[in-house]
């Protein structure tokens, strides 16, 4: 597995080795042993899978607070998404900075997002399937998020009118929850 650092500390792109032949392909998407050797060991406890039927669907920017915070390993198994991680760690030199990576079934890339970051994605294709592992179970009482178009963050989603859930459309701006 190839581990690529991003401009935000502790956020990594993971490129699995893909073995293919005339039948198709095989890849290892997670190995605790290999991640320990790269000093990126996480104890993932839950897998999530989402489906978005329409291109332009935006989910996020979400996170869990306090002891319920989650690290995530995310990938797109069908279609393509623009995946975004926002550094919300107030003591971080990259606080309020973001990184955007295209994840797709074709490129097979994954993004490792540590605790303390917000996360969201925009579907770039119809019928996108998105999978993620988390290192803490979902806790509804700790669920939080910030508005997708927060001007203090300035994520360039490449779209001005995404398809949003009612919840995501009314998430607060970061300054409202700081």
Strand order, largest beta sheet: 1-2-10-7-12-5
> How many individual β-strands?
13
Number of domains: 1
Q: What helical percentage do the residues reach?
A: under 10%
CATH fold-level name: Jelly Rolls
Envelope shape: globular
Outline the low-pLDDT stretches.
none
Average the pLDDT over all residues and give the rounded result: 95
CATH-derived architecture: Sandwich
> What is the CATH homologous superfamily assignment?
Jelly Rolls
Judged by helices, strands and strand pairing, the structural class is: mainly beta
Distance between the termini: 37 Å
Q: What is the name of the CATH class?
A: Mainly Beta
Sheet with the most strands, sense and barrel status: 6 strands, antiparallel
């Amino acid at each position: 597995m190839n581990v690529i650092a991003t401009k935000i500390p502790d956020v990594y792109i993971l490129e699995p080795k893909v073995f293919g032949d005339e039948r198709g392909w095989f890849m290892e998407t997670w190995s605790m042993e290999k991640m320990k050797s790269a000093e990126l060991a996480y104890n993932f406890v839950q897998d999530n899978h989402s489906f978005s039927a329409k291109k332009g669907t935006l989910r996020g920017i979400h996170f869990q607070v306090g002891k319920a915070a989650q690290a995530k390993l995310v990938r797109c198994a069908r279609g393509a998404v623009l995946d975004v991680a926002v550094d919300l760690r107030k003591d971080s030199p990259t606080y309020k900075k973001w990184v955007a990576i295209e994840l797709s079934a074709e490129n097979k890339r994954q993004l490792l997002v540590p605790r303390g970051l917000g996360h969201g994605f925009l579907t770039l294709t119809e019928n996108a399937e998105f999978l993620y592992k988390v290192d803490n179970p979902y806790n509804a009482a700790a669920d939080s998020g910030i508005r997708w178009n927060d001007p203090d963050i300035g994520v360039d989603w490449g779209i001005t009118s995404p398809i949003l859930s009612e919840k995501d459309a009314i998430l607060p701006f970061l300054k409202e929850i700081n």
